[in-house]
Amino acid sequence: MSKHHWLYTILACVVLYAAYYTSGYFFVYNNDAYVNSDWVNVPSQLDGKIVKVLVKNHQKVTVGQPLVQLDATNYSLALKQAQSALAATNSTIDIDNSNIHSANIKLTQDKFQLNLDQKDLMRDVALEAKHLIAKQSVDAEQTKTKIARLQVASDKVALSKTKQQLLLDQKNVQKLQATVAKDQWQLNNTTIRASVSGYVSNLDLQPGDYVQQADNLFSIVKDNWWITADIKESNLIKIQPGQTAWVYLTSKPGHLYKAHVVSIDRGVARSQNETRGGLPYVAPATSLIRYEYRVPVKLQLDEHIPGLIKGLSAKVFVFPA
Q: For the chain, is the Cβ count within 10 Å smaller at the N or the C terminus?
């Protein structure tokens, strides 16, 4: 090979190397992208045996739609018992109020009687001072007045006890109301319902299966699709929200779909141990060398594309504005 051929070869390599590392100024091609969407786990709020599975895998569901029915027998009985106890305690409240009313009436009557006895005593004391009646009459009125005063004091104690009983029963009513509310909530949650609209995924349940509280039974994938592209850090220099992009979906070959850049993640984890705070971790590809870190970029498809599947591969072309 001549000296010029070596020179041309080296020059071509330099040009290709420069083109590769400066291409991000003109366009970005990324084959590390995938279809993404929101999704939620469907948990069980209770322990119980499944009696019915009301949906099928991959079925589209709407918010509030029943998905799974648990055995409600024990929860229904608990609710009925709590409701009966609440009704009985509410009846006691009515009796307490009636007793307070009666005690108030008796206290009023005895106060009136005490007032009369005190007036009679004052009159007899005045008459006895003028020697118009015997002292025995005054002594009798004094005894009568003391008894009336003691009766009024007793009535006040009885009224206070009745009011205290009412407060205790009212507290019991509050506790039983909370128990009824809890038991009603549990009974309602024996029917597991969809918290979002979307597609049932990874459903593998049968009647007779036993589930426990907080078990994740399956997932619902929402019908709000976007593309996540893990872009190399050196290619981020010209990417901004609003830029036009073209997406090639591996599951739908032969067509490019128009999209636009929505956002760029503002943090990535340097290792898998740093994900506690929620930062995304994209494992860097390595062979003989360690390649650049990649940052998740969200792209929104400009049209609704039916039949998308979360996690499938895509390729992205972004043209800087």
A: N
What is the structure's pLDDT at 1?
Answer: 47
Residues 6 or more apart from 180 whose CB is under 8 A from it?
Answer: 79, 82, 83, 86
Q: Are strands 198-201 and 216-232 parallel, antiparallel or unpaired?
A: antiparallel
Rounded (5°) CA angle 141-143-148:
90
114-123: Cβ within 8 A, 24+ apart: 114/145, 114/148, 114/149, 114/151, 114/152, 117/141, 117/144, 117/145, 117/148, 118/145, 118/148, 120/144, 120/145, 121/145
- 18 versus 120: the higher-pLDDT residue is 120
- Range in 9-23, 153-167, 195-209 the model is least confident about: 9-23
What global pTM score does this model have? 0.72
Round to whole Å and give the CA distance between 42 and 189: 12
Residue 232 three-state SS: strand
Residue 288 has pLDDT above 60, yes or no: no
Average pLDDT over the chain reads: 87
CB 242 within 8 A of CB 261: yes
Phi, psi of 27 (to 5 degrees): -160, 160
DSSP bridge pairs for 257: 247
Beta bridge partners of 30: 316
- Residues 229-247: pLDDT tens digits? 998 888 888 788 999 999 9
Angstrom distance (rounded) from CA 321 to CA 318: 9
Instruction: Give the CA dihedral 135, 139, 144, 150, nearest 10 degrees.
Output: 150
